[in-house]
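User: Here's a chain of 357 residues. Predict its fold as tokens.
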Amino acid sequence: MKILDFFFDAYDNLQSLFSAKDPQHASGDRSLLIRIIPVLVLLIILFQLVLGFLWDFEAEHFDPVEHASSLASERNEDIVTGYITTATLIKTSEVLLNKRGGYLSNDVTPPGLFMDNIPKWEIGVLTQIRDLTLAMRNDIARSQSQSIEDLEMVSAENQFRIDSGSWMLPPAESEYQKGINALYKYLGRLADNDANDGQFYARADNLNVWLGLISKRLGSLSQRLSASVGQARLNTDLAGDAEALQSTPTGNMVEVKTPWLKIDDVFFEARGSAWALKHLLLAAQADFHNVLVNKNALVSLQQIIRELEATQSTLWSPVILNGGGFGFFANHSLVMANYISRANAAVIDLQHLLANG
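Assistant: Prediction complete.
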């Protein structure tokens, strides 16, 4: 009732303000209102700027093994093969939605509407979530190509495919939460005693499939980061096959350059992708430990993780600099491309070890 009285009083005051019988009194009130409105607008803008600054922070790191142990204890479940990877996938997805400021990629109101660094960071994280759920749906959660797909993994993979910018009908957050709920169900079925109810097959070939997706993502990010300074590249699209064709012919030289306004977008997408991948690979190191040791490939995976950790070093500059390769100013994109390229090279080496080791 007090809230209603407040609005009724405010309405009466406004009505009296604009319908006052005393012209001088009404003129004075309008003059006061005209002076107040710019102040209110300025305060609103200042509040949005402060809020945007508070939200413009990347998520903190966590220990996948410790998190899985805590989650298993909370849910009264045993840690079985695949539990740590699935729990880390869930945690990564929850961080995407529940970090400071929440999920920003689909915001249509300030300050999220005008932010781009963290939304691009979110795209990088979401890409790794999508790739792992796809690998789990198609391979890791299935015994062979002719086996039936796990229904929870089908649901999770579908939900995470919703457009990241969708803000209604449906909102992306609610669909991603449905994907997280499906992963929780799958996690519970992994930990129960029913051998026919949810499996995680930690085999070398399954890990290799996921690494193939990772390599493509890292390769693309590396090229986009390197293109910050512009490059003339030889066209190698059809290299290795004399009979190969493509739909539209291209020249022998290809000019590649990331637009100036997109340089920081690519940088933060790479940061987000590396952040998520670092945690997911740390989890895989635990679940695929026997396979990695058997193939003498554990150190190769650890090298990938080390390169990804280097991408998460503190960024001291308030803006992403785009100096020349050997110029006076730094080029943050080229530094990031170096670590991403080294990680990708280590991924390719690990794939060879798993396939032939």
